Amino acid sequence: MLTKATVVSMAAAAIAMLPGAVLAESPTVKEIQDRGTMLCSGHNGSYFGFVEVNDKNEWKGLDIDICRALTTAILGDPEKAQIVPLSWAQRFPALQSGDVDIIIKATGWTMGRDTELGLQFSLPYFFGGTQFMAHGELGITDATGLEGGTICVEAGTTIERISANYMSTIGVEHTIVSYESAAELRAAYLANRCDAFAGWGPNLAVLRATEIDNPDAHIILSDKLSSEPIAAAMRQGDEDFVDVVNWMLAALLIAEEEGVTKANVAEMAATPPNPRVARLLGVEPGMGERLGLRETWAREMIAAMGNFGEIYDRNLGKDSAYNLDRGLNNLWSHGGVLYAPILD
Predict the structure, then answer these.
(1) How many CB atoms sit inside 10 A of residue 185's CB?
(2) Which of 22, 45, 279, 284 could cross-link to 16 by cystine, CB 3.0-4.6 Å?
């Protein structure tokens, strides 16, 4: 005979199988909400355009703003983001130990990290490849001119391995010297302690344009060592948190596609131009319930941070000191490779 408790349990299980009836709650989201702050990765110095500190000792950058967008989605306020300074080598141990909730820090999605470090990754939100910058006085245009030379890299990054593999492939003898921080690496290169600086192409372009007194005395070599998808990294085992992060990124891209901006989001919510915008902004239900969040989380996030294009432009693009062309990092409809999954 079935007991009353068994019948209740069976009924609850049946209800849970109905689409949208019962939502799994992310333990990570619950912990963030209970704490009242989001712990995001910073940098031990400045990684220009992505994670940096301005002259008012305030955090800024593309990755910082994406962290604040996620914080708004979960907690309703971008100011509840707490930025934890970390070196590249510290970031994954800090995530595994719970010192941060997520790594949003120009982090490449690699097989080793995916399978061996207990990490899982979001949708890519940026693409950039590894390149070399060399002293112009060397008179070289590509990496074959670095025979017998020294290449500086930052420790704990994929750039170190990518550079070594590339130089081995093209048969160029070289020495790689690793530095713990970006500041030490820049100082070593500018002091001529190495012939070339291996770095992420977008960051090298920003550095050369804005942080070097004589940019014409340095050349970014023609070699393109990689095209690396950049994504947020999370601990394995909380798929619901991955869903939240993925749809946060998707919402920023959908908003840009639909022309929803920080300035007009309230107007768009009052009179949605189409069902997709109505769903995005919580006018029609579903955007919140499926993730265990408020129905209006995306509307609040866009009102606080803008859409993806606005975030890019103020940190890297036309509204920043760097004026870095979007290239691959534009929407698919504008010649780039960024796209959002279908919002149904």
Answers:
(1) 22
(2) 22
Residues in the chain predicted with pLDDT less than 70, given as ranges, are: 1-24
Express each pLDDT in 98-149 by its tens digit.
999 999 999 989 899 999 998 999 999 999 888 899 999 999 999 999 999 9
pTM recorded for the entire structure: 0.80
Integer Cα distance of 310 and 300 in angstroms = 15
Domain of 45, CATH number, reads: 3.40.190.10
In a shared domain, residues 75 and 150: no
The helix (run of H) or strand (run of E) holding residue 84 is strand 81-84
CB-based burial, 293-309: b 16+ in 10 Å, e otherwise: bbbbbbbbbbbbbbbbb
Q: How many domains does the chain have?
A: 2
Q: Rounded to whole angstroms, how far apart are CA atoms 303 and 109?
A: 29
DSSP state at residue 26: P
The tokens for 218 are: 């340095």
